[in-house]
Design goal:
By secondary structure, the protein is of the alpha/beta class. Helix content is about 35%, strand content about 30%. A hairpin with a 2-residue loop joins strand 4 and strand 5. The protein is globular and about 75 Å long. The relative contact order is 0.13.
């Protein structure tokens, strides 16, 4: 296996609390790998350790064939990062932001101008080249942040919630650009709270909670092996009474959330037939997805 990232027994402790607890992780060359988990699961700390920004308290890290943190500077020269929050310079134009960032890698002169023009075309910002960053929409700023991460032609791209806060149109543009990068052979590591985004983009993913890797696999593998294939969502008054009396004989598993019962089935037809003449409830049937897997493994309790 040609691994771009290889992690063994990685640990990090803050103030006596273990936030990354002995994880093993491999990311293969040319794949989009998703690192998923609730808030506080240890994802961001793991990414910071991969980049050599946060020192580990145990275990080993190898990125692009180099040990981290010992060779972290050399690693960062070959990595592009899209942070969770845009940190563009508000005093600069679009082009000035990219030019200044390129200079950090020792990139200057005509080749950089050509590279910037190419990147602005890639993220559809050619017409905004001389615009001040503060005049850009949120979606434009996110695309500019992606372009900035590509200035140094990185071998590995790390994206921390790349489409958070974007409208559907902007999200789809970001997704299209990431698919193009993967098709070009780039290796992507993605964190996101949008399960549909992870399912659409990721070749493989790891679900993490309380500092541990719970499962790793393709989206299809995880859905097939960890969750019932069909879900019927039933909503209405006294749903808990219905769920305790009627549903158990018709479904494999039920999760109650407010006035909704999530009914997980091997075969949904008996439940749908039973609900067909019931005017008390609203219901909808669908196939199980990665969000169902995620919630089964990490729970439905709110994380802050």
């Amino acid at each position: 296996m040609d691994s771009v990232i290889s992690v063994r027994g990685l640990r990090k402790v803050y103030a006596g609390q273990t936030v990354v607890d002995g994880i093993d992780l491999d990311v293969r060359r040319g794949e989009c790998f998703g690192l998923l988990g609730p808030n506080g699961a240890g994802k961001s700390t793991t990414l910071r350790m991969l980049l050599g920004v946060t020192p580990p308290d145990g275990g080993s890290i190898e990125v692009l064939g180099l040990p981290v943190p010992a060779q972290a500077r050399r690693v960062r020269e070959r990595v592009g990062v899209v942070p969770q929050k845009d940190n563009l310079d508000p005093d600069f134009t679009v082009t000035e932001n990219l030019t200044t960032y390129a200079s950090y890698f020792g990139l200057r002169g005509p080749p950089v101008k050509a590279r910037i023009a190419e990147l602005l075309a890639f993220v559809s910002l050619e017409e905004k080249a001389q615009a001040n960053v503060t005049t850009l929409s949120g979606g434009m700023q996110r695309r500019l942040t992606l372009a900035r991460a590509l200035v140094n032609a990185p071998d590995l791209l790390i994206l921390d919630e790349p489409s958070t806060g974007l409208d559907p149109q902007a999200r789809h543009v970001i997704w299209q650009r990431l698919r193009t990068l993967k098709a070009e052979g780039k290796t992507l590591v993605l964190t996101t709270h949008y399960m549909d985004e992870a399912e659409r983009l990721c070749d493989r993913m790891a679900i993490m909670d309380h500092g541990k890797i719970l499962v790793t696999g393709t989206p299809q593998e995880l859905i097939r092996t960890l969750i019932e294939p069909q879900v019927v969502e039933v909503r209405g008054p006294d749903i808990s009474a219905w769920a305790s009396v009627v549903a158990p004989s018709l479904v494999k598993r039920i999760e109650l959330v407010g006035d909704t019962a999530f009914c997980y089935c091997g075969d949904e037809q008996p439940l749908l037939q039973a609900l067909g003449g019931n005017t008390q409830f609203q219901f909808a049937s669908r196939r199980a997805n990665i969000e169902d897997v995620f919630l089964k493994l990490t729970g439905r309790d709110l994380r802050d």
